[in-house]
Each structure stands twice: as structure tokens, then as C-alpha cells.
What we know:
Chain A: It holds the Pfam family DUF2783. By secondary structure, chain A is mainly α. Chain A has helices spanning 12-21, 28-46, 49-63.
Amino acid sequence: MLRRDDGFAGRGDDAFALLIRAHDGLSEAESAALNARLVLILAHEVGDLAVLDAAVALARHSLNPEPSPGKPSPSEPSPGETP
Amino acid sequence: MTPSPRYAFAAPPELRGPGPRRPVAVIGSGPVGLTCALDLATRGIPVVVLDDDDTVASGSRAICWAKRTLEIWDRLGVAEAMVAQGVTWNVGRVFHRDRELYRFDLLPESGHRRPAFINLPQYTVERILIERAADFPDLIDLRWRSEVTGLTPVGDGVRLAVATPEGAYDLDVDWVIAADGARSPTRTRMGLALHGQRFEERFLIADVRMRAAFPTERLFWFEPTFHAGQSALLHRQPDDVFRIDFQLGPDADPDREREPERVMARVRAVVGADTPVTLEWCSVYSFRCARLDRFVHGRVVFVGDAAHVVSPFGARGGNGGVQDADNLCWKLALVLKREANAALIGTYDEERGHGADENILQSSRTTAFMTPKSPAERLLRDGVLALAGEAPFARALLNAGRLSRPCSLAGLSLQTPDDGGGPQDGPVPGTACPDAPVSDAAGRPGWLLDRLGGTGFTLLVFAGAAPPVLPDLPGLGIVVVAATPLAVAGAESLADPDGVAARRYGAMPGTTYLIRPDAHVAARFAAPDGAAIAAALARATGRAGAPFREAA
Ligand SMILES: Cc1cc2nc3c(=O)[nH]c(=O)nc-3n(C[C@H](O)[C@H](O)[C@H](O)COP(=O)(O)OP(=O)(O)OC[C@H]3O[C@@H](n4cnc5c(N)ncnc54)[C@H](O)[C@@H]3O)c2cc1C
């Protein structure tokens, strides 16, 4: 569902630098607000709800402390992995 | 550590009275100054090297030397010794806490003479370069304990004041190469300053000797369990020595962090309590990413750390400096032989200024990734770390060092852009030539890079079954590559039985590359057309009225 190729076409470092720069001079609250807005804008750019669903699942999964390193716990979905 | 060699001071003739004007003086016998001296000598240019000390680098400085550097040193006849004494590596691993996120291979294909990297301490590198300099007794005049104390432009040359244990003298030269390091007194003397960014973060580097099973790979940890909240980097060096870099944060007290008991406690946390280990050297440092605005000032040309400094992550300091030497010396040799105009030196500034910007950008980004400055930056960084185990895209964002690669000079003045008729794949003009296994007419195996560049420009022509019709261009070395060697008058014939060279150069019969003395592609064509090659050659030597930035 989520793409496994290089969506940044070799320019990942530029993309990351752009995201970091977006927060220049902002307070923590402003940064959080910016992040929320970015999520909304980018979600709309993605459009496809199934992709969004997989992205949310991957993000949530990555929040959990890992019970066994490297392996997702069986009760969790395994997003990002092509079956 | 083996004791450092001491090199004897020998009184130069100038101490007895004014001597002749010399073509080139190099200030500083670090890896970059010595590479310049050897490069100029291989081109027949006599050079005086002045160094204020009488030995090699002390302590731990550079250890990682990149493939491109080894290829340059192959041309100078020293890479074999470096590789033999160093340890070879291609693979890196990245960990987060106790979990391996991924591994990368910097050289996943075979058919290259040199590995992605070797690790070899800088003092050994310098010793090998100094030994090699002795092979050019008529061309390289290496003067120890000779401190440059003054520099005055005189007409179209420079007068250097030199202080020695036996007195002072003046040395008149056409050109000065300032290779006097990050604190460059030449820079200060000329009122020039580096511009850039200073990082507050402090790092501890410890070289320890131990018998340990760590693989010969680059190991990088974010927030390792043994060094909470920070990062750490481990490299194997020759003779059971390992280098460990610990990130300490901006508030660390350098004096306290250097205390051996404290250092050893950190080391023990990595290697365990039972491994016998001795501390060879340690230091605490912070660093800058900065450069001179211009590298060429009249007849003084800055190279290496004197021209630009970077953070060590990515091994871009010494490797970048060796690329400076490689870029400058053929140009300087052409100018001194009156085969090119002095304006050609302006393209050193253009090309290596571009290289320095790239090195600074890459090493600053790595440092920024390791040291998030705001909570927002840390959240994004930690997000990348958390996702990198599962999501390949996050591994592309994760920045544990972008290791030194050959700089591309594409789009700069000396290169002739593709006209679309030439190869569709392979190195575009400006790219450093890729290597490939080949054999000579007698069937002896060798490497393509050994046949390209070096003493002059090379025409690399790929052929099918029939010998190509070659243009008559005096002074141009010609190499013809075919599946089976062809007898071609005036050219060296190489066989490429498995087609590796043809594949790497995107070649069809007729495909022709014009290659600079530093083994970067100057131009490429569908066929060896004399007029087009002559025009590209004129451009690549600065004779075509191509727009240069002023060298002055
Ligand atoms: C901890 C650390 C790790 C590093 N790791 C790497 C790595 O893995 N890979 C890499 O590529 N780079 C690395 N570097 C960077 C590398 O060490 C430098 O880029 C390299 O030394 C630059 O070489 P240089 O010849 O320009 O200058 P230097 O090596 O500094 O040499 C300058 C020379 O000039 C001489 N000199 C100074 N003033 C005068 C004077 N007035 N008269 C005469 N002589 C003078 C000095 O004595 C010295 O010999 C590292 C640096 C550090 C500090």
C-alpha cells in the first residue's frame, strides 16, 4: 500500500532540510500547529484514503515501544510491509 | 603508537645567498600539500615544499580515505602501499538504541580496483607520501623546519620569507600553493577569513587498542544503550586499533572529558568490561563548516583545510583536499609550461569551490541531524529514526553521514555539454571516470583508470570489430577499447572481454570520451570527430574564450 521506492527521487536530504527550515523561528506551539496543517495539506495531496489509512497505521505502530526489537508485535498490524 | 619519524633539516642554498626563482612553492606538508608535490613532480614541475615541523601528523586525525582518493594516489604511485597497510571496508550499519535499522554497501558491484574506503591513520598516509617524494630527488625539495613567516606579491610572482634553525632566507616563486591547514597562517597573513557555521556540539574521539570482534564496517549508533541520548561511531583501523567517536553535547567540559578514566569508562561501556583495552589517544573537539570565498588570490592558491573546513562526518576533509590537489596541479603544470593561460587557474576556484560547497552542505546536514537544535527539529529527527526500521523512505532521510564521493563538475566552464548524439548512459561531462577491468594487447589484466588522464588528456574510444578511424590530434593520448584488442596505430589497445567498460560508459562502437588529466570527463561524442574533439580540448584547457571567473 505505502510506496517502497524512493519517492524523493534521490533528494531526500533536500526534502528533510526543507521540512526543518519550515520551523525556523517558530515557538513550540506554532511548530505543532504547522505540523498539523502540513499533515492536512499533504493528506489532501495524497487523497487516497486507503493510503492514508496505511500511513496512519505505520505512524501509530512506530510510536509503540518495541517488545521485541526489529519485530512488530503480533497484535499490531504490519503496515509498510508488502504482504 | 610507533614513534613518529623525524626528518632532518638540510640547509638550502638560499641560506648562502639569493637563489633562482622557482616555479612552485607548497606551504605545508600535510596530506594535501604532499599530494600536490607528487602530482606536480609526475608532470615534470619542480616544487619546493616548506613545512614548519619535522614530522608527520600527531595523534588521531583522518582515518577514512575514499575510493576516489585512492584512484588519485594510484596515479601518483602510492595507493598500493596505502591499501596494503590500511584496512578495507565497504559496508556501514546504522543502529538506533539496540536495534539495527539497516546496512548499506558503498560498493555493491565488483570490477573496481579500489574499495569504497580504507582506514589508515593520517600519520601513516603522510609517511608513505614522504617516502614516495624521495623518488623525485630532482623535482621535490622537501624542506623541514622551514616556517613561512612572510609573503609578498612581487610582480607576477611571490616572495616568501622562510625561517629555519640556521637562519632566515627569501624564496622567489611564480606560484604559491597554500596547504598550511585549518589555521592557515597564509590566510591570516593575507587578511582572509573563512566564512561559515560553527557547531557548538562537542565530540570525544578515542583511539583504543584491543582484540575485539567488531566487523570491518562503519558502525553508527543513534542513542545507543551504552551512551544514552547521544550518538556514537566506530571504525576499525590497522593493528587492532579502533576509533570511537562519542557525541558529548554542547555543554561538555573538554578538560574533564579528556581525563583517561572518564574516557575509559565510556569505552568500557561499548566494548564490555572483560576485553583488555588500552587508550592510544583521545581528544575533544568541536568544528566548523566554512570556506574562503575565493581560493585563488593572485599567485597564491589555497588548497585543503587552508581553503575549507568541514565536520569529520562523511570523511570529506582530507578526501576533499586530495581532490583539490588533483584538480589544481594539471592546470598549474599547463600554465607553467605555457600551454595554457593563467586564467585556467580561475577554473580551479570554480570547480573546487563547487566541491567545497557540496562537502560543506553534506557535512552540515549530517551534523544538524545528529544535533537537533529545536524541539520541532528533534521531533522530526526522532520520527525518522522511529520509522527507519520499517519504512525505506525514512532510511533515505536518516543521515548518519553522507560519505565522500567524487565531486561532479557537470555544467562548469571547462566541460562541453552533451549535444544529445553521444552516449545516453555512462558518466556525463564533469563526472569522474568509473573504473573497469580491462586487459592489454598481450592479455595482461589491468584497470581502465590506469590508462586514463595522468600526464595529459586522453581520448577513450570504444570500437566494435573494425578499428576506428582516429583523428590526428598531437599530444592527445588515445586508448581504444574493444571486446577483443584491435591493432590501431598511434593508440593503446585494450580488451574489454566482458563488456564491463562498455556498459559503465554506455558505449556503442564509436562512442568517444575526452578525458581530462584528472580523469574527469571533459566531453563525449558518438564518434571520434576531430573538429569536435579539438574544440572540446580547447575549451577544457581554457583556450576557447569560455567565460571564467577572474582568478585575481
Ligand atoms: C578528528 C578528525 C578526524 C578526521 N577524519 C578524517 C577522515 O576520516 N577522512 C578525511 O578525509 N579527513 C578527516 N579529517 C580531516 C583531515 O585531517 C584534514 O582535512 C587534513 O589534515 C587536511 O590536510 P591539509 O594537508 O590541508 O592540512 P594539514 O594536515 O593540517 O597540514 C598543514 C601543514 O602545514 C604546516 N604549516 C602550518 N603553518 C606553516 C607555516 N607557516 N610554514 C610552513 N608550514 C606550515 C603544518 O605543520 C602542517 O604540516 C579529520 C580531522 C579531524 C580533526
